[in-house]
From TrEMBL:
<dbReference type="InterPro" id="IPR022896">
    <property type="entry name" value="TrioseP_Isoase_bac/euk"/>
</dbReference>
<feature type="active site" description="Proton acceptor">
    <location>
        <position position="165"/>
    </location>
</feature>
<keyword id="KW-0963">Cytoplasm</keyword>
<feature type="binding site">
    <location>
        <position position="171"/>
    </location>
    <ligand>
        <name>substrate</name>
    </ligand>
</feature>
<comment type="similarity">
    <text>Belongs to the triosephosphate isomerase family.</text>
</comment>
<dbReference type="InterPro" id="IPR035990">
    <property type="entry name" value="TIM_sf"/>
</dbReference>
<keyword id="KW-0413">Isomerase</keyword>
<feature type="active site" description="Electrophile">
    <location>
        <position position="94"/>
    </location>
</feature>
<dbReference type="InterPro" id="IPR013785">
    <property type="entry name" value="Aldolase_TIM"/>
</dbReference>
<dbReference type="Pfam" id="PF00121">
    <property type="entry name" value="TIM"/>
</dbReference>
<comment type="pathway">
    <text>Carbohydrate biosynthesis; gluconeogenesis.</text>
</comment>
<keyword id="KW-0324">Glycolysis</keyword>
<dbReference type="GO" id="GO:0004807">
    <property type="term" value="F:triose-phosphate isomerase activity"/>
</dbReference>
<comment type="pathway">
    <text>Carbohydrate degradation; glycolysis; D-glyceraldehyde 3-phosphate from glycerone phosphate: step 1/1.</text>
</comment>
<dbReference type="InterPro" id="IPR000652">
    <property type="entry name" value="Triosephosphate_isomerase"/>
</dbReference>
<comment type="function">
    <text>Involved in the gluconeogenesis. Catalyzes stereospecifically the conversion of dihydroxyacetone phosphate (DHAP) to D-glyceraldehyde-3-phosphate (G3P).</text>
</comment>
<feature type="binding site">
    <location>
        <position position="210"/>
    </location>
    <ligand>
        <name>substrate</name>
    </ligand>
</feature>
């Protein structure tokens, strides 16, 4: 399994700041070929970052998209607009989209289907809230989110990646322990194996939620942790680079 180490910059960095980051980061990872590296900047920086990443191995991602190719959808971004900028990955169903903007499983499913149609690889985010964890329903929540996100496309799960991001671990500095992560990742691996009838060999199950240069090695050493989706720590090229190098050590 080729790991994927992905940066989700969320609503951070202007165009100038994004370009400055990439110029610093590119030479740092020039000789790293063993893992896939992806960066998802803000929509306004996609075009400039796309040019910067030309002729590098670093992949470009978007943080969201709408599922329709054009039309009267004020404020939305379509898959053809992303394709034009060489976007290869799209983060879908992030908990901030679900909880702040009210995205439901049904909409996430439409977006997954659309991304696959346009050849953009979805990274589908799932994860429980603190309340759900305390109620002991973490695995039920993750199962529902996965079954609904991939409804109608189970045989194509291998064309997607999944990020397990417990909501209580995002931006809190309180990451899941390696045991907590492994338990859910193992559950997801078994579930997608069943759903896709064994077609999931290329699906990476990423962990996200307060990943940093100090906890990355412990987390990635777990059998079913196939990479990371990093928020805060990815905003600093040195920290993001360290997370990548730790994932080369396992
Ligand atoms: O939401 C995340 C990545 O998508 C994780 O964010 P943090 O790394 O800031 O906790």
């Amino acid at each position: 399994m080729r790991y994927l180490i992905a940066a989700n910059w969320k609503m951070n960095k202007t165009v100038a700041e994004s370009v400055e980051y990439i110029e610093k980061f590119k030479p740092m990872v020039e000789d790293i070929h063993q893992v896939d590296i992806m960066i998802a900047p803000s929509f306004t920086a996609l075009s400039s970052v796309s040019l910067e990443l030309n002729n590098t191995k670093i992949k470009l991602g978007a943080q969201n998209m709408y599922h329709v190719d054009r039309g009267a959808f004020t404020g939305e971004i379509s898959p053809i607009m992303l394709k034009e900028l060489n976007v290869e990955y799209v983060i879908l169903g992030h908990s901030e989209r679900r909880h702040i903007f009210g995205e439901k499983d049904e909409l996430i499913n439409k977006k997954v289907i659309s991304a696959l149609e346009y050849g953009i690889r979805p990274i589908v985010c799932v994860g429980e809230t603190l309340e759900e964890r305390e109620l002991g329903i973490t695995l039920n929540v993750v199962e529902r989110q996965i079954k609904m996100a991939f409804a109608g496309v189970y045989p194509d799960i291998g064309l997607c990646d999944i990020a397990y991001e417990p909501v209580w671990a995002i931006g809190t500095g309180k990451n899941a322990t390696k045991e907590q992560a492994q338990e859910v990742h193992h559950f997801i691996r078994t579930l997608i194996n069943e759903l896709s009838k064994g077609n999931d060999e290329t699906t990476r199950i990423l962990y996200g939620g307060s990943v940093n240069e100090n906890n990355a090695k412990d987390l990635i050493s777990q059998k079913n942790v196939d990479g990371f989706l990093v928020g805060t720590a990815s905003l600093d090229p040195e920290k993001f680079y360290k997370i990548i190098t730790h994932s080369l050590e396992v």
